[in-house]
Amino acid sequence: MKSPADRPKFTFAQVRSVLAETIGVDHAKMKTFEARLQQLQKLGLPTGTNVGRSGRAQYSYPQVAEILFYLDLLDSGATPALLQVHFATSPLYSTHPGHFVEDASNGEYRVAVRFNALGHLRNAEPGRAKATVFDLVIRGGSRADFLDLVDEQPSIVINLTRRIASLKSAVANLVPSYAGAKIFPGKPGSL
After folding, report:
1. Portion of the chain with pLDDT greater than 90, in percent
2. DSSP three-state, residue 56
3. Is residue 112 pLDDT above 60, yes or no?
4. Which residue, 14, 53, 59, 132, could crosslink 63 as a Cys pair with Cβ 3.0–4.6 Å?
5. Before 46, cis peptide (omega within 30)?
6. Where in the chain are the domains?
7. Distances (CA, A) of 97 to 20, 112, 140, 152, 189
């Protein structure tokens, strides 16, 4: 395995280009897309990114995958503030190992996400009175692993394995020196 220093690092411009290709941003809308990425950056997403006036931001490959996940949630109607509340201190791939997602043998590692935004209406506890209190339920695995969650409440379902494949394809097209690089270190297919 390569050392952390040998793993791909992306500039903000590379992240913008790769993610724009991955999600299909129209060239005429790139400034708006860039502003959305900067908004996430200002909210501390993804966690651990070196940003600020002292230097240029550097993104690891797992951080780029994390941003793609946030963009998918935004595309499904989640707000940037909601993403900040739930993922600024606990990124998705810290709880759902990325190497398992990347190496899923059947290409079907999916995640179901439910922001229980009306949970404060269903509970009389004083600490749950504000509309900004959310319960986040994430369940990942094969289709059978999360069907009960989807049947129970409205959820966002994302095939993470396919999204990772799309991201790797965009990286191969736009940053060919990183083509074939693994996004997530770890043992293939293990949790």
Report:
1. 40
2. coil
3. yes
4. 59
5. yes
6. 4-178
7. 24, 15, 10, 25, 10
